[in-house]
Amino acid sequence: MERHDGGSNGRSSVAPDGPPGRPVAAPVGTLDVVVDPDLRLHLPPARRADRVQVRTTSTVTVGHVVQSLGVPLTEVGVLELDGVGVDPGTRAVGRRLVVTPVPHPQPVPTWPPRFVLDVHLGALARRLRLVGLDVAYERDADDDSLAAQALAGDRVLLTRDRELLRRRLLSVPPRHGAFVHATATDEQMVEVLRRFAPPLAPWTRCLRCGAQLEPAAKAELAHLLPAGTRRTYEEFARCTGCGRPFWRGAHSAGLEAVVRRAQEALHHM
C-alpha cells in the first residue's frame, strides 16, 4: 500500500505497511528524487518541482519510489542513485535519485515494431494501420488480455492507463508498454511515430482488422461493390484477413492528409 503524507512539509512516504502483528521496516532517511521535465506530467500538479522528497525504508525499491510518484516504469530510461546507474529492483537507500525518460527512438521487442492498443484508442488504431503499422485492437479486450497479447506477440501496449502499465513484465526491457500523453487522435499518432520511428507503408493494411491488403481485380470484387463504385473506379485491393474490398474513393483525400502528417512527423524528428 502506498501512503502519501498530507502534511505541509512537501514530503511523501513510500514505506509499505507490514502484515498485522509484524513490525514495519523503520525509515532510513529521506531521498531526493529529481524527475526529468519530460516525465513530470506524470506527477501530481502540486509535486511537479525540480526535486521531490520521499521518506524511504530499507525494504523499498527504487522502482517502487518512482511508481509511487505516478511515473510508470515503461517511461523511464536511466535511474541513477547517488550517481550510480541502478535497476528498478535496487533498494532505495541513498540520498539522490535521478529519473530520466526512455530514449527516442525507443528500443522495441522486435523490428519493425508491432503494437496492441487498449479499448480507448480505436481511432488511433485506424490511423496507425493506415500508415502500414501492425496494430492489434479489440473493442472489448480487458487488461489481462492486453498484457498477454503484448508479451506473447512481442507487441508494445499503447495506453493512457497508468495502472495498466504498472504490471512489472511490461516494463522489463525490451519494454512492452508505453503511455500515450496526447488526447487528440492526430496528436497521438505523431507522438507514437516520434517515439518509435517505425518504417511506414501507407495503404497496405486493412483499417478494420489490420491484416495486409493485396491487389484485386474489379471482377473478383464486383459482388461486394456498390454500383456507383463499379462504374467509377478501376483499382482495388482486398484484405487478406477479413476479405473487405478497398479503393481510393471520395474519402481518400482526408486519409491522404493523415498519411502526409505521419510522414512529416518522422521527417522532422
TrEMBL record:
Family annotation (InterPro entries):
Mut7-C_RNAse_dom, Ub_Mut7C
Transmembrane ranges, per UniProt, are none
Region: Disordered, residue numbers: 1-27
Q: Which residues form the Ubiquitin Mut7-C domain?
A: 33-105
Q: Where is the Mut7-C RNAse domain?
A: 113-257
Protein name, per record = Twitching motility protein PilT
- Origin species: Georgenia yuyongxinii
Q: What is the lineage of its organism?
A: Bacteria, Bacillati, Actinomycetota, Actinomycetes, Micrococcales
